[in-house]
Amino acid sequence: MTITTRATALATVSARNTIDLGSSSASRELGLALDLANGVGAGQADLAFSDTRTLAASGTEDLDLAGALADPFGVAQVFARLKLLVISAAAGNTNNVLVSRPASNGVPIFSAAGDQVILKPGGFLMLAAGAADAVGWAVTAATGDLITVTNSGGTTGVTYSILAVGCSA
User: Fold this and answer.
1) Are 20 and 116 spatial neighbours (Cβ–Cβ below 8 Å)?
2) Which H or E run includes 66?
3) For the chain, how many helices (H) and strands (E)?
């Protein structure tokens, strides 16, 4: 399979204020983009996993990037490096979606084991290695290959979508 990837993030804020004899405004924008060609070097990726998943009340799951996930064609995706991770919590969720590095065997997307991000309903997380980065985040089978996703509450399920892009070598 050959893949190409384009990830973009754009944040724009506009401020307006009424002043004597008129108004004043200012706008700020921060736009970022990552393009990855097919391959395993800097600015490249050759694996992708995407899915929409549901966790039961108080549910948790470990996503194993070293072989337990499959591409849209059913082929196991064995990541050696992660270059892009996007996770979004469904807007209709009642509970938060927690994304963490497990105490053992966690992909080092966070500084320490147990670190996590709280995704409020409708929230999202995007982590991207720069195009010049040949490594991204190392994925090591059996010692550093898991990302934990948890439902923060015990009353209702949560739904989230995930996209992981990386390299096989």
Assistant:
1) no
2) strand 66-70
3) 0, 15
What CATH number is associated with residue 95? Answer: 2.60.120.380
- pLDDT of residue 72 exceeding 90, the answer is no
- Cα–Cα distances in angstroms (integers) from residue 88 to residues 47, 163, 169, in the given order: 20, 9, 27
The count of domains in the chain is 1
First-to-last C-alpha distance (Å) of the chain: 15
Q: Which residues pair with 128 in a beta bridge?
A: 84
Task: Give Cα separations from 36 to 7, 42, 70, 106 (angstroms).
Answer: 9, 8, 20, 24
pLDDT for 93-147, tens place per residue? 999 999 999 988 999 999 999 999 999 999 999 999 999 999 999 999 999 999 9
Q: Which domain holds residue 82?
A: 5-167
3-state DSSP call for residue 72? coil
As beta bridge partners, residue 150 has 60, 98
Global pTM reads: 0.93
- Shortest CA distance to 159 belongs to which of 85, 57, 51, 55? 55
**Residue 28, token pair as written in the block:** 């700020």
Residue 62, both tokens: 């470990």
